[in-house]
């Protein structure tokens, strides 16, 4: 049984990549209430197996409140299952909502995939 919903919103693309022992999930499009389910399922499936995971949001065009909740839940799941978790974000469309809501100090965010891979072994 797949944890990924059969259909994804048309404006959302998820791409998986494995780099060493780290899962990288690239997200492109809008991260809102409609698109959060498939993203959350993919991230949770990885983290719940104890796999360190990088969530690449560099191609995200919009980050809504549901997306912010997803990021906090992913951090919590990572801690619960002992997996590393880092977010890659380099544009105001993602960084601004994180900063405005006061989540910046608790979310592990880097601006590049290289930096995320270097940081992934640190506790989240």
Automatic annotation (TrEMBL):
Start and end residues of each STAS domain: 12-120
Matching PROSITE patterns: STAS
Family annotation (InterPro entries): Anti-sigma_ant, STAS_dom, STAS_dom_sf
Source superkingdom: Bacteria
A single GO molecular function term of this UniProt record: anti-sigma factor antagonist activity
Pfam families the record matches: STAS
Family of this protein: Belongs to the anti-sigma-factor antagonist family.
Name of protein: Anti-sigma factor antagonist
Provenance organism: Amycolatopsis thailandensis
Source organism phylogeny: Bacteria, Bacillati, Actinomycetota, Actinomycetes, Pseudonocardiales
